[in-house]
From TrEMBL:
This is DinB-like domain-containing protein. It comes from the Bacteria. InterPro entries: DinB-like, DinB/YfiT-like. Residues 14-150 form the DinB-like domain.
Length: 156
């Protein structure tokens, strides 16, 4: 039977590949155009930021695409420049998503049971934290949600 870490890594690999395929199909000239509130570029950077925060636990204060930018906690997390801006080239944005996605899958594949225990930051939880494993599962669904948003945006 597949272990938890292998299961998580496999599911993240699959969902990120599906998300990446949808993004790859967006023409370069509309990749940065807002549809239904955000551009495909923003969705890609949003997922990269949340992968860093939720899966990798990266403490670097350069999160600019969390989607809660009007909240004080999000403003405190973007004091450094964003690694890639929404107006960057499609290739640069997809490279950022790919790199962070590969790091997240590798982390999950090699995580210990202890790495999946405890609590982690989660702004949508009533107390601002949720169990780490639940947060990792929630973020997997979050990737799928944004894949759907990009698809719907292209129909708008």
């Amino acid at each position: 039977m597949m272990g938890l870490q292998e299961f998580l890594a496999d599911n993240y690999r699959t969902e990120l590949a599906a998300f990446r395929a949808v993004l790859a199909g967006i023409p370069e000239d509309v990749f940065g155009v807002d549809r239904l509130g955000h551009s495909p570029a923003w969705h890609a950077l949003h997922i990269a930021d949340w992968l860093r925060l939720t899966v990798l636990g990266d403490p670097t204060a350069n999160y600019h695409y969390l989607g809660w930018e009007d909240k004080a906690w999000a403003q405190a997390m973007k004091t450094d420049a964003a690694p890639v801006q929404e107006d960057a080239s499609k290739a640069d944005i997809l490279a950022r998503l790919d790199g962070i996605g590969e790091q997240a899958v590798a982390y999950l594949q090699n995580a210990s049971d202890a790495d999946m225990e405890g609590m982690t930051f989660s702004p949508s939880a009533p107390n601002g934290e949720r169990p780490r494993l639940a947060a990792v599962g929630l973020h997997l669904r979050h990737v799928a949600y944004h894949r759907g948003q990009v698809v719907l945006g292209q129909k708008a």
